[in-house]
Each structure stands twice: as structure tokens, then as C-alpha cells.
Amino acid sequence: MISVEQPKNIVIVGGVAGGMSCATRLRRLDEKANIIVLERGKYVSYANCGIPYALGNVIKDEAKLHVQTSEKIASWFNIDVRTEVELVAIDRPNKVIHVKCVGNKNGKLHCDIENISYDKLVLALGADAFIPPMKGIDSEHVFTLQTIPDLEQIQSYIATHGCRNAAVIGGGFIGLEAAENLRLLGLNVTILEYLPHIFPPVDHDMAVPLQKEMERNGMRLLLNARITEITPTGSNKPSQILLNGTDPVEADLIIVSVGVRARTAIVEDAGIQIGKSGVIVNDTMQTSDPDIYAVGDMVETPHLVSGHPVRIALAGPANRQGRLAADNICGLSANYRGNVGTAVCKVFDLTVGVVGLSVEALRSMGRGDKTKYLTIHPSHHVGYYPGAEPMVLKVAFEADSGRLLGAQIVGKQGIDKRTDVLAMAIRAGMSVEDLEHVELGYAPPYGAAKDPVNMAGFVGGNILRGLMQPVYAEDLVKEVCFESGDGTQERRLPKKYQVVDVRTPEEFCKGHLIGAVNVPLDTLRRSLHLMDRSKKILAYCQVGYRGYLAYRILKQNGFEAVNLNGGFKAVCVGGYDSLID
Amino acid sequence: MISVEQPKNIVIVGGVAGGMSCATRLRRLDEKANIIVLERGKYVSYANCGIPYALGNVIKDEAKLHVQTSEKIASWFNIDVRTEVELVAIDRPNKVIHVKCVGNKNGKLHCDIENISYDKLVLALGADAFIPPMKGIDSEHVFTLQTIPDLEQIQSYIATHGCRNAAVIGGGFIGLEAAENLRLLGLNVTILEYLPHIFPPVDHDMAVPLQKEMERNGMRLLLNARITEITPTGSNKPSQILLNGTDPVEADLIIVSVGVRARTAIVEDAGIQIGKSGVIVNDTMQTSDPDIYAVGDMVETPHLVSGHPVRIALAGPANRQGRLAADNICGLSANYRGNVGTAVCKVFDLTVGVVGLSVEALRSMGRGDKTKYLTIHPSHHVGYYPGAEPMVLKVAFEADSGRLLGAQIVGKQGIDKRTDVLAMAIRAGMSVEDLEHVELGYAPPYGAAKDPVNMAGFVGGNILRGLMQPVYAEDLVKEVCFESGDGTQERRLPKKYQVVDVRTPEEFCKGHLIGAVNVPLDTLRRSLHLMDRSKKILAYCQVGYRGYLAYRILKQNGFEAVNLNGGFKAVCVGGYDSLID
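ok -> C-alpha cells follow
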């Protein structure tokens, strides 16, 4: 399977995840090839995912981030690794790249500008942190947190300036990790998020518990933040982040993490096809030039749920793409199979996991009407075994076929596990009903005979088969109306509903939906004659199960009914406070 | 979809996992049916999986094991629950069962023997703990641990007899859980296992770390134990377990857990078809009598990997089968899709997970020649994030197609997660190569950009594509020969191998394979001229990766080579001590 031609010149530009995975796989497949890796930075093959945790001293020894040194790569893999060398241009007709030394010009090249010829070129240029254009963004106390030099600069700035108030602009992955780690250093931290909620891969109701967890840990959140300017740092007056419609935020350290942009300029100049967000590649990672491959944060690959090309800036896909490019360069047939967008993130004591698309994302694609979803609140293992922790699990699926479209999970324990299980289900093209049947490991310390994933299957299967009709808190919130009388205003749900709380009186007294009457489940069958048959009954309980039982009793007794998805807990967890009495 | 005929009489015999799941689903689907649940024991719907942990006071409040009370089931589900009622016979022609009161005859029936007619009968009789026929097995200090009365009897016996030395006969799931929990009570515990290793669902090399963990926790293991007799307890002399070929074991408390046998006698008497290990059912859980369904520990269902019917005595399948039987009784089409045999078990600080078939099981089915496997030792999350714990992951697959056949995992953290992910892969019919492509959630606290599951895919894919040829420690052990000289005897591997350790000299000095020479990987390319080209090189490193790199270098330089599967660590972990110098 290995080519027996003349040694190939293979040049890889970019020496971190995708580039280095490609280079080492190439060597394993082809002992004879000339393999050159060019890296713009000082370091190759370092663990950039660990950088936020090194900032917070969670990872105490920064040296641990250096997975491989250039020397080790050279000795194990016989690869010519050149750091602080930057790509300038690609001369495709002559199969040559122009590169230049950056940094301290320490003899990594023979001259300042050098030409390197290639038989195959692999581009793993990565992505640049996006710097939103605003006044003051170039101040000395404003940083990004993407590379080891970024980390070192922030650490040194904190050490020399004694920072107390930090601001993180952007509440995505890196923003949350950066914010948490700054907080661990003892700083006051404010997160400024442009959108209505943090962590955009999940829906609003799933972001709310994350937001509460951050606030519980002493952080401040500014949502819908419209930053107009960052004022300079001065000896008398600290720097301020000025906002439209909100008071300024004081910050003597600012980290900007509002996403990344693929480094495509040079590639585009060379006439290689670029898509909406990155370099276009086929499933062998080949660009529009068959001798040029591209991998990692700079490319677009298909999202298996949306069907659209997406740029996924994560180490896992980058590593696999690099390896696949090497396979294909060496004549092994191997195809990239697209993404399901699995991700997991720690937020203090919580974990959030996500795979596929959120309901908000599906709506923005015009697929909202064809999507249903369910929310459940199972424990991560059986409740009778010590240490059971609750989770919120939200699963979206196609309304007609049941095909899984996405899952979001938040909780303290077992979140990464269910995320991965659901990632497997989505990759395998399973339907929500299929989740009923999956056979997951159970012993009391680990799960339940009906795992949360099975439970999602049961609930989703019921919705799909028409055995249960959910009503969603986010829709009810929009239907809240106000009734005036005696100079007071009262919130209520539309009159079309009889709102029936089937929990116990004790539960009811601690809080319930506006306008609800309490008919405990164990009295429901004998209370049917008290109900108004002309009105739809909105049944609910704490997490949805007794509400579902009530729904089944009501429907089979001739009532129109709906069951509140996820129960009263989903209202509380999701922050739908205006529904609560 | 719901039947609109006359109310059905549905009788369910057995009120724990499968039976009660069936009963409650029936009510949700059919508000009008007459549903009767008969349970032989005192309690329904209790969590028998928690019983070993209640014994060890890990679950401190035994009441927590009672998931549902008869009263709650009656009030929520309008189900006629009768405890302490036992099935005596099934009169199929008349669609009637004969039942009798057991226990304290507290009025659960109108008379001692009653006939109950059914339209549909669901059997969820469960399985009996198997009591091996041996002298003394019926002594008062010998117990099984299956039900709450079992638990109560053992607790009371310990309280009144002040036990110090316990023995557990059988080292399967319940045996291990029972033994660990007895140890947590401070007892000296000996496990007596008939087979050459404990925990039969896994291979010998995967059981060894479990055995070491039990010994580390002060337990004694007797493997290949051939018990001949249990001597009586006496005031002067404690009871002894007598064995063939081994000293007797003193024990003042004995728990027997050598598996269970389906309760099929009455079913067989009624002329219903019985298979090798349990009642035969189709995929709607129907027995050979279309009006009689059977679910749970008493039935055989197909194993998706072996293709053979198996009896799986676990709560998860029982629950799903009960629910499915209800669906089918109510006219909803739902099919049981067979088992992949996912299981997980805690052994002190370790977790063992298993899915599919072990290599030993595949061999016993005559499929050994068509099976390959791989062993890896990844961390449960990236090494640079604090708290990374190693695991051993063994994956078996079809030698030609790569189809996944089984996985076994042992370690401290993240074991249940990978077990479930691999259970999804096996259920989806994936090949070992497919594991390369799966996209699992990664952030430093949870995994790695190349998750252990991906790593298994990389290694398996390499084996499948002929890019790496493994040699297995279990085969090498059989090839160890002895050379006499000067009155001494020396172990060595067959002369056909040059055994080359490619680790560092420091690693080599701490222990290596017999007859190995040390050629560190970073010197290998310049040492090739020193190697004997006429001999196959057995390359190895610590966990297999550098050995694989060495293998690739050697093969591409014209050498015959093999790489030790799982490296030196697999030799140590798997207990292949005779290979170590």
C-alpha cells in the first residue's frame, strides 16, 4: 500500500494538532519521505486546550503542556521541524512555498526568505482569535488566550500589574474556561456576552444553570452586552469597558474570546477555493488543488446533522483530519466522515455537554417547525446509592421520523458520559426511539437500569407515537398575559388552559405555575368530575413523569390535555420565572 | 392505537423489575384494563441491585431500596398488587392460573388457593440463586444474597453471631459486590472461584488487575477452588470449607453466588417452550403461547454478537422487556432488539466494564481464529490535567471485517463512559476502524483529543490494514522455554525472535522481557546494521506506541517484525510474570 516511488517532499505548515498528527502519521507510513514541518510559533505539538487551566494554576507545571519537543519529534520520527517560520505565499504552478523567519531569527532557515518545494503540501495554519474592531481593543491590558505566548504575557501582566478586576469578552468555550480560571486566581471577573445567553452551542434554558453557577462562584455576567469602547489604563483611573445602555465595567485585565477566524488569506491568494468559513476540502482533506491538503481549524467539513459545511475549531477533529490527510497522501484510502459537533465544557462544579444542534440553531435554519424536543431531569446514578446528582438532559429530534438532531446536558456528574453516548447515537443515525433500546452499563454506582439516555428514548418515543403531547415552558412564557383589577395587575396563562398541578400539596405550596390548581395524582381519577371538559388541561408535576401519568389518565377519559415538558423543574432551571407563582 | 374492546384481564406474575415495568406501562396505555400483579415476596418494585451495598452500609437507609410501595402503585396506577402470592400452575386451555398464599397469609387472597383468569398473562418469575449440591450447603450460616429477606437474614446473623471470617463462593458480579461489602464491614473475606479467574465475562489478563485490587484491600482469593464440603458450625470449632488440593477455609458466614437459574418449572409444566437457559420468546416477548408473555431473568433473548439466545439477569433488559410486552399487549408494535451484554462493576477503587464477548468466550465458540484483539493503556483524560488515571482497554474484532466483537476495560475513572460508548458502537454494528472517526466530547478534565476509544480505533485500524502485526503476551507465555547449562535453568523466548526493547535505558533497567536487548527508539534507525536480518524482531515498549513506531521503521527497512500488544505494561498488568526478567 505504501508508495515505492522516489522519496516525496512533503511540507506541512503548522505544527500543533492537525499538522503534527499528519507529519507523524506520514513518517509511520513512509520511512523514506522527506517531511518538513514549519511552525510559526516557538513550540510544536503543545496542548493548547490546557492553556486556560495553566492560567488558573490548575495545571501547575506549564512544561506539561509541551506534549512533544522538536528534538523528540526529530529523533523518533526523523522529521525536519522548523519553528518560528511563517508561510508567506504558495506558488502552486512551481509547487514551491515562500517562507520567512519570524521571532528571533535563530537560524531556522538559511536566509530571511526561503523557497521550499513540495510534492504534497499540507496546510494546518489554524485560526486567529477574532479581534472585534472597537476603540481601545489594542490597549496593553487586552489579551487573547490562544497560545503559550498569550498565556505567558497574561501571567507576566498580572504579576507586574497586580490586577484585581478582570473582564472576559465572549462567553463561549474559551471565554468560560478563561473566566473560571481567572476567578480561581482570586480576581473579580465579569463576563460580557453579546448574545442573550452564554455558551451559544446550547439553548437559553440550558445556559441558565451555567449562568447561575458562575454567579454562585462570585462572577458577574453581562448579557446582550454592546461594548462601544475600552478606555486606556491610567495611573489614576482604571480602564473601563464602555457599553451602550449599561454602566461601564472596570477592568485592569481584559481577555477577548469572541471566536476565531480561519487563516485563509494566503490560501485564497494562491487561488485555492475558500468556503463561507474556511478552506473547502473533500473527504480526503484535499483542497481544490489536488497536491495541497488542508486540515484543522482552517477548513470546512460537513456537519452531519445540518448537512452544511462547518468549521470546527477543536483538537479532536484536527488530529483525525491530519492523520487522514497523511493516509491519503500515502495512498491509503481513508475518508473524513463529517462532524456531529460533540463538545464538553467544565463550568466550576457543573459540566455542560452538547452534540448535534440546539433547538435555537435548528430554528435559525428554518427547521424549528419540524423539530420536537424533550427535557428530563434524571439522576446520574440511582438515587438510593450515595452521591446521586441531578442532570438536565434536553434532546431534539425530527418531529416525523424521530431522527436525533441534538442533545444538551448540564449537571455535576456523568454528563460527559451521556454526551458521548448520544454522540454515538447521532453518528449512527439513530432515532430518539432507538434510545429506548440501547443497553448501557448499570450497577448502582454508575447509572440506573433505565439510564438517562433510555429515559430520553422512552419520553421521545411517547411523543413520537402520539402517546404524550408536551407543552414547552418557553412557549408558555410568551403566552403569559396580564389581567387588571382593583388597581393590581395579575399574571395568568391563557384562559384556554386549566392548569393542574398533580404534585403533592407540600410540593405545590413551595411554588407552582400561575393559576394552577392542585389535584395530586393519587386523587386524580376520583376528581375527574370536577374538571371542566370544555377546556384543555395543562397537567404538570415536578419533572414530567406524574404529569405524563395524569395526561394518560385524562386523555383516556376524554379530556384534551398537554403535559409540561420537564415539569416544574424545567421552569425553575430554565429561568422561566414569570410562570411561577 | 389503544384497543377499544372490553376491558382486558391482564395478570402479571412477578412484581420487581420486568413485571412492574410491564404493569405500569400497561396502565399508561390502557386506563380500562384490569391489571393484577402477583408477587411471591413481601415487596414489589424494590431495587435488588442495591442489596449488596445495603449489606456494606454504603446504602445506610434500607428503606431507600423500596422504589415504589404497593400503596403508591395502587394509587398512581390503579393496579391490583398482591404480595406473598405464588404461582402454582398455568391452565392454558382455560386461561386461568392457580395461585396460593405464601408467608403470613395476610388476606392477600380470598382463600388459600385461588384461580385467576387472564386474557393476557405476563410471566416475570425471575431466577433462583443456584445452590450447588454439596454437603453442608444447607447449614444455617450459608446464605444467598438476592432478595431483601436474604439481606435481612444475613444482617441479623452477623449481628447475633459476631462473624469475623466470611467466605464468598463465586467471583461473578454479585460475588464481587458481596465480598467487597463484607470487607467494608470489617470481616476477613475469602472468595472461592471455581474458574481460573474471577469475573468470568472478562479474560484472564483483565481479571488479574481486579484480583490484585481485591488482595490490596485485604481479601483472599482462591482460584480453581474445588469445594467438597462445608462442615457444620459448632461452639468449639468454626465451620470449614473443605477443598480438593487446598487447605480448608474457615468461615463463620458464607454467601453463595454461583449464578442463577431461570424459574421455568411451572412454565414447562404448562407446555410452554423452554430453551437452553430460559423461556423462549419472540421479539415481542411472546412465548410459544400467544396469550402468554415472559420477560426478565427467566427468558432467553438473542445476543447480537454471538447470535445465540442468552439469558441476561440484569435489571436494564428486564425493564425494557416488561415495557415492550405491555406495548405489544396494547397493540403498539415494538420489538426487542437483542442484547450486547453491557455490564459494569465496582471493585473497590477500580471499575470493570464489559460489552460483547471476551476473547475467551469467542474461543469457546470456535471463533478464536477469526478474532483479533488489541490492548491499550490510555489515561482517562489528558495527562497534563490533574488526576489522570490509567486504564486498560481491550477490544476484540473480526480479523477480516473488523466488526467489533467485544470490549473490556479496567481502571479507576472514566471506565463506565467508554464501556457505554463501545456498547453503542457494537449495537450500531460498527467496525474497529469506525472508532477512529467517532467524535467524543473533549476538554482537558474529561478526555483527550484522541479519546481512548479513538486510540482503540487507530490501533485496530492499523492491525486490520496490515500496518502493524501484534504479538500477544498470552501466546508468548506458552512459548517460554528453558535452557539448562552449568546446573542452572534459564527461561527464554524462542530463538526465532530477536527481542528488542525500544524504551529508554532507565525504563529497561526497571524490568524487561527475558532475553531482550535495549535499543532505544531514538537510536533505532542508526542501529539497524547491528540487527540480525535472518530473525524476526519482537519489538516492544511500555504501552505499545513506540513499539509500533519501531515496527514501522523495521518493516520498511526490510525486517520481519512483530509488536508486543499493549507493551510491557500489558505483561505486568495481565500477570504474565514468567515473561519478565
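The two ends of chain A are 70 Å apart (CA to CA).
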